[in-house]
Fold this protein.
Amino acid sequence: MNQKEYWDNSTCKTFTAMLHLDQLSQYINKNDRILDVGCGYGRTLYELYNNNYKNLKGVDFSSKMIEKGKQLYPFLDLDVKKDKHLEFDNCSFDVIILSAVLTCIVDDNEQKYLIDEIFRVLKPSGILYVTDFLINYDERNLTRYELYKSKYNKYGVFETSDGAVLRHHNLSWIKELLNPFKILTFEEVTYDTMNGHTSNAFYCISKKPCF
């Protein structure tokens, strides 16, 4: 099963990464144009909508996730992301959300490409909100990191029993990845996972420099 097929078949899962809106709202405005990259079925956008943010757009590469989102939230603007390129003009958005998307991207270069694309479509002084999963140190996770390290040539990558290939990250890599942005807030947190475990995680609010 490839990863698009996996996510197309996972529309019943409940995603758990949080939008820390109390903190994010300090840096954004109600009329900002907001893009959720990897929006899934639109859970985060729905939370924003319920808090009176209306200029919202979501994209995801899973057509089934988008289909579910349109059924649940027909008032949201959701589209299928056809390839790794973001089909938007330069400097199109005031705010971009990236919630538990990096965990689905194993390769460093693919992660860098996505961050470069986000940088391109974000306006100068625009806000990027990222939340994702970090390396854990319990026996279950350490065992599977070691098990899959040689297969994927990356420590922290693992396969789940139902067919997902996911990645937990070192803090140093996350900060390197977000280096083009100015960090405003960075907090380590703990989330429940979609498969009923707990994981170290983080959320980061950063700003694109105004050149």
